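re the bet — no i am not wrong, look at it urself. input seq straight from the record:
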Amino acid sequence: MKRSLPLLIIAAVLVAAVALTWVLLRSSRPDQSSTNSSGSEAPGAEPPHIRGNPKARVTLEEFGDFECPVCGTYSVEVKKIEAEFGDRLRVIFREYPLYPTPHKHALIAAQAAEAAGLQDRFWEMHDKLYENQKAWSEANDVMPLFVDYARQIGLDTDRFGRDLNGEIVATRITQDGIRAHARGVTGTPSFFVNGKEAKGDSWKPEGLREMINAALRETGK
């Protein structure tokens, strides 16, 4: 117990640090000069989480929150879009947990997904979190559920627990938050197609499809 105590203290400090950083990012207003820019000045977590053809000419980038009900609904729509466009499209997911309000478990859910990513199972955890969103979002203690999801997708659960509270996960979430801030993201889900924000009707699934088709025409694909 004495040996593990310093590690627990370090983990607690890291969790507190990323939570504080996240609150500050969300509460500050984005610089209008950088809003909706290419985002090159704020690349986000590297490497990004990509599903689809990594070399596709068109990128659908989502800023999402695992506890957001609308994000849960859109996760199904995004999968349909992926299937429709196939190798012509790559999807990138960025963390933007709406923490601490209105989603009290959003940050730890993002940590769980990123910890799974360190074992090359990000998308499996991504899907588990959305598929079981109602169950864990209503729980008082989400960790037993998250550890069970980790077990179901074949993770080393001991490593998962360590990574979830580790520096790499904290850094990745913060980097995605900085990118979101630079792009002027304030809510979830937010989508960008080849750097162009989906607004108004373009934010709807059919609008996203139209944006993707337009991007394909622009790139000659």
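see?? The first strand starts at residue 49 and ends at 52. told u. also The two ends are 59 Å apart (CA to CA). so pay up
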